[in-house]
Amino acid sequence: MRNLKLGISLIIASAGVLSTQADNSTNVATNTLVKPTEYPWVSQAAAGVTIARGNSDIVLLNAKIGTQKKPPENEYILGADGAYGKSDGVENADAIHGNAQYNRNFNDKFYGFLIGDALHDGIQDIKYRVSVNPGVGYYFIKNKATTLGGEAGPGVVTQELGNDRTTYADVRVAEHLDQVLTPAAKLWEKAELVAQASKPENYYVNFEIGVETAMSKTVGLQLTLDDSYVNQPATGRKNNDVRLIGGVTYKF
Description:
disordered N terminus, single chain, 252 residues, 67% strand, 1 helix, Porin
């Protein structure tokens, strides 16, 4: 009887150990499977109607997509947008643009960056313009509600404007602002000036300001004003193009 009791006790103890091990294995497996990505890619697409004045005086369709990932030390930002339209059967909007930026944060204020930008605009007679700019940036304000930063650095531009193909060293100066207005609304603004290093009068300026309000977790409304200024445009083209863009956004 004594040996029987001892055997039963050993069986019960062994079952308890096995049960505990099984529970721990289940918890480890569960945690491994459901552990969320700490810094996921955040993406957004937008589409809408553009009212253009300048080289284009029309109503046209446009689309934009962007994604970004922002861990503490490294930031990755990718984007593309385009516009196309006709008026009375004549093409009067033909633009596609893409950009990529990598930021390396040295601390809460300073960061280094590398930006690549590519543009085709048939209306401005820019067959292609590709630029690459490294540099340094600084956050003047950086908190949950407001981010205000500036950037500067040298680079290189290669383009075909009209019938002229050129490649030159440039200097880029830029600033960007992101402002939370309410829990459901935000405002942003950004501007850049890129000038030829050896010929400062050959420069272009890109400016954008916009506001967005969320209708749900994934859908929102957006209004953007874009201004593109080329100081020495192609022959027969105007210096300035302004676009007012209203559209619907979708986050994924």
